[in-house]
Structures are given as structure tokens and as C-alpha cells.
Write a structure and sequence with these properties.
Blueprint (H helix, E strand, L loop, with lengths): L21 E6 L3 E7 L4 E4 L8 E2 L1 E5 L2 E4 L1 H9 L4 E3 L23 E4 L2 E6 L5 E2 L7 E2 L4 E4 H20 L5 E6 L5 H13 L3 E7 H19 L5 H4 L2 E8 L4 E9 L2 E10 L4 H19 L9 H20 L2 E10 L2 E8 H7 L1 H17 L9 E5 L6 H11 L4 E3 L13 H13 L4 H12 L8 E8 L11 E5 L7 E8 L5 E17 L32 E20 L4 E8 L5 E7 L5 E5 L1
Parallel strand pairs: 1-13, 13-14, 15-20, 20-21
Antiparallel strand pairs: 1-2, 2-3, 2-4, 5-6, 5-7, 8-9, 9-12, 10-11, 15-16, 16-17, 18-19, 22-23, 22-25, 24-27, 25-26, 27-28, 28-29
Helix pairs in contact: 1-7, 2-3, 4-11, 6-7, 9-10
Bound molecules: adenosine-5'-triphosphate (ATP) and magnesium ion.
The site of adenosine-5'-triphosphate has 21 residues, from helix 6 and helix 7.
């Protein structure tokens, strides 16, 4: 690592590109994951305990720090010195936080308006020289950003151990509604852990990136590359975690994603599914044991909670699961079973809430459910078969629902976010300090974005550009964070010859055409979150209705001619936009001599 000094904000964590080892991190309120992009694959790294979903929990026992699943297990015996669900408290005023999820662990407190925890994180002192007795150490008040620093240090430590080299840098994915202060707090916490943040990307963008990378890889290996990859796809990303559920509609095109709408929910979440089982088994226990309710005792409740989650996970795989806790309450052991049908009946209100969330996002995007191409389930709760079934019912006839229970080969939904972050880390790790400064800045303040898509209109010169139907192929999508570079492949002219490339800005539209009515009029799409496509006939029930995504050219930027392209050859066109928004392009015949470059 170079000892470069830099701006006060991230001084400790500026690393020269050649010294960088960059990973992707998904930093959840419930679980985190770390991933690395090797030359040919992305791998989600297991920590020392063998976990790839690492609970976002720290626990202190006799001055020893535990993290992940080991720390989570201490919620039963050492809740006061165990810190959980802290990530969503970062960058918030004490008065603004919802401490609900911290009831069963160290409680957040106010320290100068900020959030802190009072925990005993040091070893006790011997009472006297010749006695085995120790007196507990004094409690420390640890601000939440310190907790985050300690946790990130552990994550990075696990990644470094695995990779055999010190991890210096990371891309972290964060919820798309995280505000500046929250983003800043994460960067600051990482800084203190000596971790350079290359970029913060949004959770749905990371999820979509991991998904499209996989689809592209499959298309390449099955030789259907090109046209199909470049088709726009409307994705509904449902990210279902432990304490939040997010539904995001985005258009994915040539590897870039543009968000149309996002909705967030904190009620219909994984923890609510746990509660269904906690209540069910607590009642059963009470019935069998003279009304003793294990929820009334903190330790019993902690045991119930851990076992309920395990049972819930077992029900994602099997149709029956057991529930068993030693000494649940009053020293009484408890064993029971439940089947999936019963569970799904009990949990129906939660599942219905998730259905509504999905429908709401589509509505907010101004789309008809028919217009969704892919429903991509992500997050731990996405393993739940019932949720995938419900999505198939809502969208399934026209959309593919991607979840473990519907597509057995689907990427593990618990890993999508970290994989996407790792892909992004791989993409930006070679950026120099200035570009990183720009992109790190953009990640923590106003994001520097392209406002419109930038793409190309390619026409064979032989036919003359004028008479041809113009096809705008987007290369860099609207609202891409800069700096950015993208390349695409185009089919060259069948007979070969010269090709005119006109670079332009364009905007997209997704709309429904219901024949035999004439085509709906195309208007510029400003890609805003809550756009309302009221101009369009979306209430048409016609079975023949088609979905069409069109591009409209908003302005020509530059022209170039690629000379003497061989018959049937492919043309690679690449555009890069620098942090200062300067645009340059290259175009070349794949495997041939023709090439042209320029800037505008
Ligand atoms: P959040 O930030 O919303 O708290 P997260 O993003 O940190 O969550 P995830 O790992 O995506 O965490 O989701 C955690 C939730 O997923 C927990 O409620 C957990 O019980 C649940 N979960 C994990 N695996 C499964 C499974 N196999 N079946 C059902 N639920 C699961
Ligand atoms: Mg999450």
C-alpha cells in the first residue's frame, strides 16, 4: 500500500491503483458478505466459520471480540455486550432512529446527539494477585461508527486471510434510499478500518449487475452473444432482507441499469416471518406447560428467535421442519414440528405485504405488470418458495421469476449483492486517484451522472444514411455514474463496406402497443422515479398486446466512418466518459483492420 497523503476525509485510505486489492461487500443490517472477482469468476468468500452470509453482529466476552454467527449465538447468553442491527443506525441522529430490532441486544443510546452503545468490551481485572476471581472491566461507550469500523475490519480480515494478501479497497452496496449522511458514515467507518472505498453502489444496481453478468456469460458460452444481450429488459428486483424489503424496477440494457422506481418497506420482512413462528411455538409451549409464555423472558425469547429462524430456513428447503430448544423456559425442553403448508397459512399476511410491495413498485414505474420481463428475487428471504410462487402468479405468464425454487440453477439470492459489488470493484480498481476521488465523491454526495443515454446509430454508407430506418443502440445508459466505459458488438453490413457511425444522446421509452390500434406516441422519457405514463393505453386487455421499448435520439454528438468492413464482420464500439464528462469513442472491426477513434 502506498503512503499517499490525501484529502482529510479519506487520508488513511488512499491507495495507488497498482497496490490495490479490491473486494465487494454487501453490508446488511442482518448479514454481510464479501466477494472477489478472479479473472474468470466471482467468488463469495466464506469466513473462518465457513459462513458466506455473515451475521452483522459483534459480541464481546472477557475482552475477546466475536463476529458473525458466533457473535449472533451470544444473543442468548450475552445480549448486553452483543451489538446487532447497527448498520441502519449509521449516520442518523439519535432522535431519528427506530431501535426496535435492538431490544434483544445492546441498546442504542444517545451520545452527543449521535448513536452509541454501552458495552463491556475489555477483559476484567483480577481482584487480587493470588485470587482467580476477576472484576468485570468498566463499560465503554462506543459510537455506532466505531462499531461499524470494528465489524468492517473483521470482514476485511476474513477476506485478506482467504486471499492471502491484505485487502485495501472495496465497493460497498447500500440501500438506494440511504441519504448522504448515511453514506458518509459508511465511508468514514471504512476509512477508520483502513479500507479505501472505491464506490458505494446501490443494492439493486449490484443485484442487477450480478444477474446480467451471469446471463451475459451464459449467452456468450452458448454462442448467442450480441443481439440478445443488447435487448432492453425490464427487471423487478425484489430484495427481501431481514429488516427491510425493497422493490426496484429497472431497465437493464447492455449491462447498464436505469432505475425507474423504487419502494421500500420495513414491515413485511424476514424478521416478521420469524415472529410468526415465534408466536406459534410460544403458544404451543404455553398450552402444554400451564400457560408459561416463553416470550415473557428475555433469554427464552432469544432462544425462540434463533430456533424460529432456523426452522424458517429449513422450511425453504423441505416441506417439514422441526423446532427444538433445550430448556426453553422454566428448565423445560421443547420439541415440535411444523409443515410448510401450516407455516404459509400463518405467514400469509407477510407474503401478501410483499405482493403489494412488488405491485406498488411496478405501478410507480408507470408500467403494467405485463411489461416486467424478469422478477429477480434477492436477499435471504428470497429463498422462501411461497414468495416465488406468488410472484409467478402475479407476473409469471410473461415474466421469468428468478428464485431458487423456480430456477434451480439461479445464483444464490443471498449472494447477488456481494457479487455485484465485487464486479464493480473489479471494474473501477484501475481508476487513478483523481477518478476515484471523483467517483468516491459522487458516491457520497451528488452523483455525477450522464443525464441521457449515449449510443450509436450505425448505417452502411452504401445505402446512404438518409433512407435507412435509424436504429439507436445505447452504449452508456442514462444516469450512469462517471467515469464509465462500455463496449458493445454490432453486426456489420451483410455485404461489407463502409459504415457510418453517428454518436448521439438518446432516451428510452417502454410502452404497450395494442394492435390494431396505431402505435402509441413516443415521447422522451426522463427516467424519473415516479413517472406516470398516462399518455398510454395500458388498460387494454387485448391478448395480442405487445411490449415495445423504443429509443429516441435527442441530439447528435459526432460522426465517424469505419472503412472497408468485411462482409458479415462484427463491429465493436466503445464509449468512455471521463469524470469531467469528456467523451471519447473507439470503433473497430472485430478481427479485422478497420478502426476509428475520436472524442467529442
Ligand atoms: P436487512 O438489511 O434487511 O436487515 P440483510 O440484507 O442484511 O437484511 P439478508 O441476508 O439479505 O440480510 O436477509 C436476511 C433474512 O433472510 C433473515 O430474515 C433470514 O432469516 C432470512 N433468510 C436467510 N436464509 C433464508 C432461507 N434459506 N429461507 C428463508 N429465509 C432466509
Ligand atoms: Mg439487504
Amino acid at each position: 500500500m502506498s503512503a499517499e497523503e490525501a484529502s482529510p476525509l479519506r487520508s488513511a485510505s488512499r491507495v495507488a491503483p497498482e497496490d490495490r486489492l479490491a473486494i465487494g461487500i454487501s453490508f446488511g443490517n442482518s448479514n454481510s458478505s464479501i466477494a472477489y472477482t478472479f479473472d474468470d469468476r466471482v467468488e463469495v468468500i466464506a469466513n473462518e466459520d465457513g459462513d458466506r452470509q455473515i451475521p452483522t453482529v459483534l459480541s464481546y466476552v472477557d475482552g475477546e471480540e466475536y463476529y458473525g454467527q458466533q457473535a449472533k449465538n451470544f444473543l442468548v447468553r450475552n445480549p448486553k455486550n452483543t451489538v446487532a442491527y447497527f448498520k441502519d443506525l449509521l449516520g442518523r441522529d439519535f432522535a431519528a432512529i427506530d431501535p426496535t430490532y435492538c431490544h434483544a441486544s445492546a441498546h442504542p443510546q444517545e451520545a452527543n446527539g449521535a448513536v452509541a452503545f454501552t458495552i463491556i468490551d475489555k477483559a476484567g481485572e483480577p481482584v487480587s494477585g493470588d485470587s482467580d476471581e476477576t472484576k468485570p472491566a468498566d463499560p465503554s461507550t462506543v459510537p455506532v461508527h466505531d462499531i461499524a469500523t470494528r465489524y468492517l475490519r473483521r470482514l476485511v480480515g476474513s477476506a485478506s486471510d482467504y486471499l492471502g494478501r491484505k485487502v485495501t479497497s472495496a465497493v460497498i452496496s447500500v440501500p438506494s434510499n440511504f441519504v448522504d449522511a448515511q453514506r458518509q458514515a459508511i465511508v468514514k467507518a471504512a476509512d477508520a478500518a483502513n479500507l479505501e472505498i472505491l464506490q458505494l453502489i446501490s443494492d439493486p444496481a449490484a443485484i442487477a449487475a450480478a444477474y446480467t453478468a451471469r446471463i451475459d456469460a451464459e449467452a456468450n458460452s452458448s454462442d448467442t452473444a450480441g443481439a440478445d444481450q443488447q435487448k432492453d429488459k425490464v427487471l423487478l428486483v425484489l430484495d427481501l432482507g431481514g429488516t427491510r424489503s425493497d422493490a426496484t424496477v429497472l431497465i437493464s440494457s447492455a449491462g447498464m441499469a436505469t432505475v425507474l422506481a423504487a419502494v421500500h418497506d420495513y414491515e413485511f420482512v424476514g424478521a416478521a416471518l420469524d415472529k410468526v413462528l415465534i408466536d406459534h411455538f410460544a403458544k404451543e409451549f404455553a398450552k402444554k406447560n400451564k400457560g408459561v409464555d416463553p416470550r415473557e423472558n428475555a433469554r427464552s425469547l432469544a432462544k425462540l428467535r434463533l430456533e424460529a429462524e432456523a426452522t424458517k430456513k429449513a422450511l425453504s428447503l423441505g416441506t417439514n421442519a422441526s423446532f427444538s430448544v433445550e430448556s426453553l423456559a422454566d428448565g423445560i425442553d421443547f420439541t415440535s414440528t411444523i409443515n410448510r403448508v401450516r407455516y404459509e397459512t400463518l405467514a400469509r399476511p407477510v407474503f401478501e405485504g410483499i405482493n403489494r410491495l412488488a405491485a406498488e413498485a411496478v405501478k410507480k414505474a408507470g408500467l403494467d405488470p405485463l411489461e416486467i420481463d424478469v422478477v429477480l428475487l434477492s436477499g435471504g428471504s428470497a429463498h422462501t418458495p411461497r414468495i416465488a410462487v406468488n410472484m409467478s402468479t402475479l407476473f409469471g405468464e410473461h415474466a421469468s421469476v428468478v428464485a431458487p425454487s423456480t430456477v434451480p440453477s439461479a445464483t444464490n439470492p443471498s449472494e447477488l449483492q456481494a457479487r455485484g459489488a465485487a464486479l464493480q470493484a473489479n471494474l473501477v480498481r484501475d481508476f487513478d486517484a483523481e477518478e476515484i476521488e471523483q467517483s468516491a465523491h459522487s458516491a457520497v454526495s451528488t452523483v455525477q451522472h450522464t443525464s441521457l443515454a449515449v449510443g450509436v446509430i450505425a448505417t452502411p454508407l452504401s445505402v446512404g444514411a438518409d433512407g435507412e430506418t435509424e436504429v439507436f443502440t445505447p452504449i452508456i445508459l442514462a444516469e450512469s455514474a462517471v467515469p464509465v466505459r462500455r463496449a458493445i458488438l454490432l453486426a456489420g453490413p451483410k455485404e461489407g463496406g463502409d459504415v457510418l457511425l453517428r454518436f448521439a444522446e438518446g432516451s428510452t421509452h417502454v410502452h404497450t402497443i395494442a394492435p390494431p390500434k396505431k402505435e402509441a406516441k413516443t415521447e422522451a422519457d426522463d427516467n424519473s422515479d415516479d413517472e406516470d405514463d398516462s399518455d398510454f393505453d395500458s388498460d387494454d386487455d387485448d391478448e395480442e398486446e405487445q411490449r415495445k421499448k423504443g429509443w429516441k435520439v435527442q441530439g447528435l454528438l459526432a460522426e465517424a466512418a469505419l472503412r472497408g468492413v468485411k462482409a458479415g464482420a462484427k463491429i465493436e464500439v466503445a464509449i468512455s466518459i471521463r469524470a469531467d464528462m469528456a467523451v471519447s469513442f473507439t470503433a473497430r472491426e472485430v478481427g479485422g483492420k478497420a478502426a476509428v477513434r475520436g472524442s467529442f
